[in-house]
Amino acid sequence: MDHSRTPLLEALADYHRMGRYGFTPPGHRQGRGADERVLDVIGSDAFRSDVLVIAGLDDRLARNGYLARAEALMADAVRAETAFFSTCGSSLSVKAAMMAVAGGHDGGLLVARDSHKSIVAGLIFSGVQPHWITPRWDAQHHFSHPPSPQQVRQAWEQHPEASGALIVSPTPYGTCADSAAIAAICHERGKPLIVDEAWGAHLPFHPDLPTWAMDAGADICVVSVHKMGAGFEQGSVFHLQGDLVDPIRLSECADLLMTTSPNVLIYAAMDGWRRQMVERGHELLGEALRVAEHARRQLTEIPGIEVLEQELLGVEASHDLDRLQVLMDLSGTGASGYQAADWLREHRRIDMGLADHRRLLATLSLGDDKGTVDTLVDAIRAWRDQLTEPSPARIDLPSPADLQLDTVMLPRDAFFGPAETVPVHEAVGRVAAEQLTPYPPGIPVILPGEMIDGPVLDYLRTGVEAGMNVPDAADPRIRTIRVVARL
């Protein structure tokens, strides 16, 4: 295929060159109707390119096939059989995948418990029964790793009726599962594997990165182009191969969730990013990996900061690691990641990928270079130098056993059923009617339908006091919890 072509980007360029004008949405009319104060911030070019009808991008004019050609090029670029574009993020894409595999079936779905909140939302929407696969737990670092192949095999032995399996790899920390072995275990049973690879859009384009899910044998793979690629927020692609998932059913499930008014800027950026990766991806990502190694060396020299790498790999740990995710353990400084992130934001105008009770994450990309990394290192060194008497708030960390809450109701039934709000100290032993998710990275600690225990509530309550953000809670301060009503 001719990867120098970009059907969507070219269609947008033609729209501008021909001076077309549409009496259709969007109503801002290429910025003519936009408030000048908005244009001063966003710029007029964004509005000029926000057009619905580029002969083929809107439901009424889909016969021109620009989108289909762009998706075919994407599939070819990453060695998948089919690719689907989404302008609603991987949150939509993973829901469509779950519904295509398990929707309407009674067997449920094997789901890694370290899944993003969007997967939980998929369970609530679809009514699918989750059979949780417990992640591996590093009690020393208080850190979870993706499930092992053996854990997935055990889950199949316990729930052979499940329609498929879903794992997250890479995790937001860059740790990766042995997707090839897990795919083989699923395929022994004739069941598909979905990989939520939202953090892995770049993986097909360089051999020194972890194995791409399609190369590992996954049936469906979901990626967020905006995370580790060069697309806009909300840009997502889900890829398909093999004969275990019906592509028409997958497309129809996506159509149920997809907007009929997609943003062409998101589509066109994905199209252009695919061309960039085919033509220069190896070069760009190779340089990004060298920059990341420079960052790791420099950060390791700062007293009290441990850049995690080998600690994340090996026995009872992850199978591989995306080294563009630079994870720093700050416990040797006596401060929390929350405190460090707040200081960097206030004093150096730097936002980190995520922070927790003992870690900071710097997510590097092909857009970084030695200059941006040196700025990061200098800022973290300055934070460390001014840290004289750290006094992080105490966080009650639960044991791995305490984190494994029992699922006693379908997430859908608990979420949509009668609920009541109770003080946090009265929620122990009750069934959650909401999900409580420290963010980022967005992995729920409590899900609708789970029986709440005291240690997890203590973790959330003391975590919020220490700087943790739980934005999806009905009460973000965790003074009250929504639970299933007693009838």
Termini separation comes to 61 Å
Radius of gyration: 23 Å
Mean pLDDT: 92
Largest sheet: 7 strands, mixed
Classify the secondary structure makeup into a structural class: alpha/beta
Q: Give the neighbour order of strands across the main sheet.
A: 1-10-9-8-6-2-3
According to DSSP, the number of beta strands is 17
Total separate domains: 3
DSSP strand content: 5-15%
| CATH homologous superfamily identity of the largest domain | Type I PLP-dependent aspartate aminotransferase-like (Major domain)
- The best one-word shape is globular
CATH C-level name of the largest domain: Alpha Beta
Unreliable residue stretches: 59-63
What's a quick, concise take on this entry?
This protein is an alpha/beta fold.
Question: Would you mind describing this structure in some detail?
Answer:
With 487 residues, this protein is α/β, with parallel strands linked by helices. It folds into 3 domains: 7-275, Aspartate Aminotransferase, domain 2; 281-386, Aspartate Aminotransferase, domain 1; 400-484, Orn/Lys/Arg decarboxylase, C-terminal domain (Ornithine Decarboxylase, Chain A, domain 4), CATH 3.90.100.10. 38% of the residues lie in helices and 13% in strands. It is built from 17 helices and 17 strands. The protein has helices at 7-17, 36-42, 44-48, 66-77, 89-102, 117-126, 149-158, 179-188, 213-216, 225-228, 247-257, 264-300, 337-348, 370-386, 400-403, 411-416, 454-466, and strands spanning 82-86, 109-112, 130-133, 136-138, 143-145, 165-168, 175-176, 193-196, 220-224, 236-240, 306-307, 320-321, 325-329, 354-355, 359-363, 419-423, 480-484. The strands form 5 sheets. The chain has a 7-stranded mixed β-sheet, with helices on both faces. A 4-stranded antiparallel β-sheet has the order 11-13-15-14. A two-stranded antiparallel sheet has the order 4-5. Helix 4 packs parallel to helix 12 (264-300), helix 5 packs across helix 6 (117-126) and helix 5 (89-102) packs across helix 11 (247-257). The chain is globular. The termini are far apart. Mean pLDDT is 92; it is low at 59-63.
